[in-house]
Predict the structure of UDP-glucose 4-epimerase.
Amino acid sequence: MAVLVTGGAGYIGSHMVWELLDHGEDVVVLDRLSTGFDWAVAEPARLVVGDIADQKLVEETIERCSIDAIIHFAGSIIVPESVADPLGYYLNNTVKSRALIESAVRTGVRHFIFSSTAAVYGTPQANPVSEEEPLKPESPYGTSKLMTELMLRDTAAAHDFAYTALRYFNVCGADPKLRTGQSTKGATHLIKVACETATGKRPQMEVFGDDYPTRDGTCVRDYIHVSDLVNAHYLALERLRAGGGSLMANCGYGRGYSVLDVIDTVKRVSGTDFAVKRSARRPGDAVSIVASAERCVSKLGWKPQHDDLEEIVSHALRWEEKLARRNRL
Ligand code: UDP
């Protein structure tokens, strides 16, 4: 029995691979290496380079490696990019996920964990946002993920198949042992960008919009440590294998920080007063979104270990320094 991790050479996927290996699981990674790196895939996980929509490859891999569960991370994740290229996002995130789900059904893989997103809620009526909140994505990215959730729901109703869709809030930080971290080139996510600026990889960074109706005028997000996030997936896997049935749950801590809070924390932890420019709002950004984390805790028995912004930033910074040393070699 082995677990297939799509996108396992990427940021969250590479942490998932470590989490599974740490629990003694046999792991196979499927990744086309468009944004991920082969060196990010931990030994002894096996790397298959290819596309999730290549059904021949996927089904052969499932049969050959005795896959009993799929954890599906592969996809595109940048909100403004999805606004500019909606059809690219619907292809990558929705159409290709459909092919992967079909391969799972055809080969009898009954457990499927999907990386969904808080972007399915758009700007919620109230925070913290529960799973029952109306689904009103404000970007093609959010819609592309919501459509995959709906395909999973309907597939589970029709076949011997159960899924867990985890709706991620803002994933950040790095493995505390620094075995992996976020290595994406041209990353756009706030903590990564701020850490790159603090370590001198960028001359300055921008704050996208400071006239939002929030405490300090900048958008508010629920930043969750990647190691806590992948642990929720491992618990979801155990639950599915035990016959727990399908589940959809938020993955966040239930508290929000503004863009300026994050930048201040990165400045404080790094001891660097880097340049920050105020810029126009970025298309597709929701004003404020914070998770209600109750379902993840009650259904999965999730106990976050790294719910501390300074700790998250310190792991992200240490990874950035390690990457800089690595790139100089
Ligand atoms: N943000 C920013 N400057 C950056 C990157 C992000 O001001 O260089 C803001 C962005 O506009 C949003 C918040 O930080 O309000 C979180 O953005 P991110 O891209 O990290 O995650 P998202 O919530 O879009 O998934």
